[in-house]
Amino acid sequence: MMKYYGKPVQAGMAAGPVYVLKKERRQVKYGETGDVQDQIGRVQRAVEQSKEQLGDLARRALCQAGEEGAAIFAAQEMILEDEEYLEAIYGRIRGEKAAAEYAVAMAGEAFAGRFAGMADAFFRARAADIRDVSDLVVRNLDGNPKQSRQPQTPAIVAAQDLTPGETMELDREKILAFVTVQGSVHSHTAILARMMGIPAVVGVPVETDRLESGMRAVVDGSRGEVIFEPDAGLWEEARRRMAGERERKALLRELTGKENVTKSGRKVQICANIGGIEDVDSALENDAGGIGLFRSEFLYLGRDSFPGEEEQFWGYRQVLEAMGEKPVIIRTLDMGADKKAAYFGLEREENPALGCRGIRLCLERPGLFKAQLRALFRAALYGNLSIMYPMIISLEEMERIQKIVQEAQRELTQEGTAFRVPGQGIMIETPAAVMISDRLAQKADFFSIGTNDLTQYTLAVDRQNGKLADLYNPRHEAVLRLIRMAVENAHKYGKRVGICGELAADLELTDEFLEMGVDELSVPPAMVLPLRRRVRESE
Ligand code: PEP
Ligand code: MG
């Protein structure tokens, strides 16, 4: 096993045979020419040919790597129109009586050398383009414009370095990943790899002489890790991850932008559950219709003190701005039970799952709760926010919440701070909440059913207790009946109802949820598109 780290360029897993792309570095030797005009004419023809070929590559790049990819070759074409560049070539033919090939190679190298010596990494990377273009002109002068050999079957292409032209000439379908010894993350080859979504790592300190085509390798593009001749365990794991990524990409191609609609025209909103600001990207990448559950307690975990109002405001605002017009439901703090932080100073409880958790803790500590509400109300001006309260069991709790909401409103108004009170929903995650859901529906703007807790409290099975895993059955008929009841009661009062517990992603229950009339299913980001596909297959 040979393990190396380079600079990560494009995330993604690849596991497959290596294809070592070795380049014969052509030595262009000095050759004297008899007829200067003849050589200049040859250069001009080769330049025109090269421009046409670059135009072809630009068109190909446009399809495979978008406009940014195409622009690389358009910029290369411009080098061939640069007076200074062309004059440097003609100058060598005239002054040194050099043959066209030699003049292009030498002038191109001198020109590239000027960029290679620049302090700015971006300009240094442009030297590769000049070398690429000059090489193409020389190859056209040789009458041999195509350069690279190709892997015949999908492979990880490993090379000392790769020019954009070489990269684009490779058959996209045959490249699992790029690994280069040289190259910077700013290089055009890196840009192309990114635009084509091909896992890539550059600056990998491997001696290419130790590599042979056909040997196995694993590339983890996000970590910049490359392992040649991996052991069986690593290989299998990487193959599994690669297959998973492939399926996800295929889903993205097939389903991005499509509606969540059944064959008979029934629609459902599919949103993503997130635990932090950093998860927003994955919700958007997976084309979620919004955020159906932002577990805000993650802002409070893994630290030594409470996040202040200001810190929370900026966090919520960031999520809302990133989501634009898409709806975002932030759940207020659901601490206690399995989610604890020492600085809260929570008392030890005999039965923490039945103890002071969720809304109970917030109502016990109104100052803490109010700080969060103030942050949420201020952030509400920056997007499409709703909030919801966890672990509700009574109408009385709703009244106590409203008192604190009003206090926060009053304070903000008195201070002259801009805010908006967003829609307020409740989580239905206790049998008690279901049983009084007709009354709760009159007090809340919407329901979101938390099946993880609803299962544990309905079946009296601790969701944390591994020994009871077989009994923890969210598909239990009792749970499904409770869900149905909550949906019916919400709709009786014209309120929307979603499911945000793990059960929402159970594709075997999708039909049942649709039949119940659930308005929204909120699932982990990676499940958004599989669920969309499931809905679209439904009658
Ligand atoms: C639930 O209980 O279903 C839920 C979504 O909340 P959590 O899993 O965070 O308790
Ligand atoms: Mg819960």
The radius of gyration computed from the alpha-carbon positions, rounded to a whole number of angstroms, is: 31 Å
Largest sheet: spatial strand order: 1-8-7-3-4-5-6-2
What is the 3D shape?
Answer: elongated
Low-confidence stretches: none
Bound molecules: phosphoenolpyruvate, magnesium ion
Q: Classify the beta-strand content into a percent band.
A: 5-15%
Helix content: 40-55%
Q: What's the overall average pLDDT, rounded?
A: 92
Structural class: alpha/beta
Supply the number of helical segments. Answer: 18
Describe the structure.
This protein has 539 residues and is α/β, with parallel strands linked by helices. It is built from 18 helices and 16 strands. It has helices at residues 36-79, 83-96, 100-116, 121-141, 164-169, 188-196, 232-255, 280-285, 309-323, 359-364, 366-379, 395-415, 431-435, 437-440, 451-459, 477-492, 510-516, 528-537, and strands at 2-5, 7-10, 13-20, 155-159, 175-180, 200-202, 216-220, 225-228, 269-274, 291-295, 327-331, 384-389, 423-428, 446-449, 496-499, 520-523. The protein has an 8-stranded mixed β-sheet with strand order 1-8-7-3-4-5-6-2. An 8-stranded parallel beta barrel has the order 9-10-11-12-13-14-15-16. Helix 17 (510-516) links the parallel strand 15 (496-499) and strand 16. It is elongated. Bound molecules: phosphoenolpyruvate (PEP) and magnesium ion.
